[in-house]
Records
---
Amino acid sequence: MRNLIGLLLIVPMISWVLKEEPYIEEIMSYAHNFLNKSQKFYFGLMAMTQVISHFLLFGVVPMMYHFIDRFLKDHKGETWENFKGTAILRGFGLSTMWVISIPSFIFAVEALEATLWKSMVLGFIFALAGTVLSVIFSYYQEQKYGMDFSFVLKQEIEKAMRNSRNQGKWNKDVAEFVFLFVSLFGTIFFVHETTGLEFLLTIPLVILVWTFLYFGFKKRLSNFVVETRYYFSVGIAKQAQQFSILVAAGLLIYALNQSNVGDYVINGMNFLTGIIPLLNILFLIPFIVILLGFIGLGPLPVIVLVTGFWRLCHFRTHLNCCISRYFWKCHFYHFVTFCYAYNYIK
């Protein structure tokens, strides 16, 4: 839990990089041939939300909404708000299944001792399936509203292309964004493999050095100083609620481990699964996720709590009697996050 607090403190520094150049606008302009239909645009918006969440984490939702709202500034109303809002929320909900910088994902992988790259691949497959399902829903929603989004989107994309600062086939900003993405997360994997540090320590250390080097190469160290001062004076205070909820979740997990309450809960679940042959502990986990979501907890504390509870169950029960231990560790996180993301997909 201590490492998770450090991760939450450092990871938002990645967002400073996206403020320096209009990367998102240039990517949308560069991919104009792919985004010329409403379903393609919806898919691209969800995909972009998941990619940008590597850098902005939870801040990707207001940032992407602000961007797409400016992009479609002349088009308001319920239909467009539904189109924009559902794509961004669904994209963020699915990003928690495979994005390495999302604290809940990396915490669950470390806690369950799963293989990171396999967890990311499985999470990406589930996220891709959820994205396709969301596009299908959006198609029927568009038919219900009786509007032609494709015509409007094509006009707005043409305007964005005319305003782009990279008019040729080679887009410098897109190439730079790809390099930044690969260099950051490639370095994280490289440092982890060479030093053996756990990811909860590797990620913050790499982000600190990577962010400083970016501003150094751009010769904008003054901007780095300004962002640092603002973050430590104002930005951290905005995360107070998130930190306090996370600490409370950690205390609850510790209390369950130190008391007999956890035994009572697990014995009760085992009793239910014993008298109902078709019932499995995994069938009960979604109801815990739904309950925590209803009382206002976000994805991070939900995953931390459920993962901690799962570890408690894992050490005190014999779930591997029917299936290998590795299968449970590798797929449990995606099972839980899919339950949480399903609320966004709907």
---
Amino acid sequence: MARSNTLQYMILGLLTRTPMTGYDIKQTFDKEKAEFWTAPFSQIYPELNRMLKTNLISLLEIPEENSRKKTYQITTNGQKFFKEWLLQPLAPNVLEISNDDFILRLHFLGKEHKDTLNQLLNLRCRTLKVEIAQLELELAEVVHHPEQLGRELIIEKELSNKKIDVKLWNKEITRDQH
């Protein structure tokens, strides 16, 4: 389930591409983000209303047969707000980044933001290395308990996934350095 800030940034990011109805936002969200988050209409529409009130988005007047259909567009204020969040520098004292924040920012960063992308990837690698170390400690305990084989397999799967992520992110970081 998407958190409010996550949902706000997701909607703003989608609206940087093109104006959309709430239905379009839900469809795009499900198509592009279903692997990471879900957001039902019961979360999307209240968030759209809140964002309208704070002038991050506005309604686009489109003369159509269906007058109940609302099309939303990002405002200049919303574009500025979204870009500031997307490109905010990662402070040196920040030691880890949540997976939600990482995936969301990663999704909207383009090649023109390579420095920010590399900062983000480096921070995520540091976070993953800590998580890998914790999982390895947990695994060392579990292997001595045959009755916890299922848990052992889950830990091994998580370890494998996190190690693959570190390898992929490091490959991207060093891509332009050769």
---
Amino acid sequence: MSRKIAGFLLALAGFMIFEWVNLGFNLADGHPRSFYVVHGILIAVNIGLAIVLAVIGLRGLRGSQASWPPRPARSPQAARPPQAPRASGSPHGLQGGAEESERSPV
């Protein structure tokens, strides 16, 4: 995860927590009980989601810092172990050269 995405997730989580806590304190009196129950559930679920986003963002930020600055990419050739030379002069390692390829399929 990039640092930009991790920062966005943290900012979004902070905004969600601020928004829903503010809504909870600004609920006006005089509504039926079901109104408060529904909004209480909405507040709890959204704060839970914000905490999950914050944890993902923090893990992403820590993970991107561990590899900072980015290392140059290794070539595929460097990753392979060296191969032993082939036994014959044939490119496919066949003994006998042309006789092997002139056989008809059985």
---
Amino acid sequence: MDSVYQKQGDADAKTGQGDCAQFPPDIVQRGHNRQPVFVERRGFECFLANLQEWKQVYELNVFSYCLMTNHVHLVVQANDNLSAIPRLMKRLAGRQIRFLNALDKRRHFSGTGRQSPDEG
């Protein structure tokens, strides 16, 4: 059985994509205005627990992740449901915002551009 690394073909001249389309994308999620997403160890642990929960709910394969203080990289592949990855990212962001709000008692943004009720 040949590995996918041995079966890389020539890239398409128009799109620049060859067989790379078979590889899952690197998804990056940043804090609002690149603010910190993780301010202490519990934040990382909370994110990973939520990732574990929601990847099972949406039946996703998580191949790798890299959690940095102000952003996250995920390599995730959906099986059949194309909306599963955006839903996962929405859930992870929402839970992380709630965690930060509870941690420091102030409102964080979800990146939607809406103001929180306290800041109106």
